[in-house]
Predict the structure.
Amino acid sequence: MKNLESYISDKVRDVPRSGIRDFFEIVAERKDVISLSIGEPDFVAPWHVREATAYAVTNGATSYTANLGMLELRQEVSTYIKDKFKLSYNPAKEILITVGASEAIDLALRALLNPGDEVLYHEPCYVSYAPVISMAHGIPVLVETNVKNNFMLRASDLEKKITEKTKVLMLNFPTNPTGATLSHDVAKELAEFAVKHDLVVITDEIYSELTYDEDRISVANFPGMQERTIFIHGMSKAWAMTGYRIGYACAPNVLIEAMMKIHQYTIMCAPVLSQKAAIEALKNGDVHVAKMRDEYHRRRNYIIAELNEMGIPCHTPEGAFYVFPDISKFGMSSKDFCMKFLNEYDVACVPGTAFGASGEGFMRCSYATAFESIKIAMKRLRHFIADIS
Amino acid sequence: MDELLKILKSNALETNEDIAKMMGISEAEVIARKKEYEDSGIILGYQAILNEDKLDTDLVQAIIGVKITPVKDGGFDNIARCISNFDEVENCYLVSGNFDLIAVLRASNLKGVARFVSEKLSMLDGVISVETHFMLKVYKDKGILATEEALDERLKVSP
């Protein structure tokens, strides 16, 4: 047999290794590290959700469900989206339950893209966007966001990158890793851009429950948008249900049907127990979501105040659970800064470059970590920058 | 509930400086608002929450359901105040259901509880009957689980 490597498809071989993966391997080796590198809540799923899961399995919920997901869950999703986002989706044919929001993104891209179609996406961003566009045979076209705009995406930046082949605009606000959100005016501007160029918009709203100072706003709310938008959300972040792997896509029936074709032949359906748990979370979980959001809010304020005192510039993120401070003044690459901080003070933050080249000069600190650990980490950061200044 | 109270309820030892940072206000404002709450009697005190099962004591706690006869003018309040004034009584509530009052009692041993119930509580004018439940084990107190916290099993780095 030839070298096995040569059997790997070109497409997959060409996908670069995730920058976060290298860092993970270094941190995983070490003991007693305070990690501000974790992209999931430090809370466990609320007890009523766990209890509902146990009840479901005890009562024999072990079968497949409808490909689209359980109707009861789709109805709950529909009610929730209507209530929180003022968007109406028919649970019978416009909502698809997926294995995490990640699957929904993958399905959306694969359903939409022909080889060579271009997808506009903004960086710094979640590590999987560009690879998943490539693996769907699309061409990822990156549009940089920057701290001057509070990492909001502007239509003027998109205009520079649009071509005849542009088919899709991908958005993620609040953004991982910057915590950026869209103001009403900017969301409107992006919506108008999408309508003007007749693009399909995939909006990953997984952090939308975790917005702190402003009301949540989605591009899907603007005229002419719902008909061209695939609205993606899930239970992972705000309900602290990452391991349950429940996401969903809401979109016009034609798009949901196309996504469902792939989903039914590859996944069949999201796990039934997780769907049962999600029903319980959506029905009775509001109070827990609010409590966790309050806690994240306090931690965010604390970290921002600490960074300000240290003289480390950092825009105040309005959403998600990340801060993205500017560490360029210390004259080191992001990677070197984070490695040195890890080696000397046992605190792990992710170099901004893990989220795209435009993340150079920044690092991501997740505040999905116990408050006491955040306090220690900030003290250590003070010592560290005193050492290197 | 006010943000400051939420923070203090979850950890009263949080420093004024840290609270100020969490709330995005000045330290002076935190101090002033705390004092306001203390002066107005909204904050009644600050206490440690103990897992007394881990203390080597014979301390006994009991929950006592009390039926009483309300009196003209005072209603249930007079007798409830009277019961609350005993040092042994840690909490006292007016409740709906089979009892009128629930009192939570602490005593240094079983005899202490027995003595309190038979010699003090039952003797009070207006007390019709009492039902004593000894506490055997505490699972949760003031919203805090008495069992060990679960380990953080998350990956140390994730996207």
About this structure: The beta strands of chain B are 60-68, 89-94, 101-107, 127-134, 140-141, 144-145.
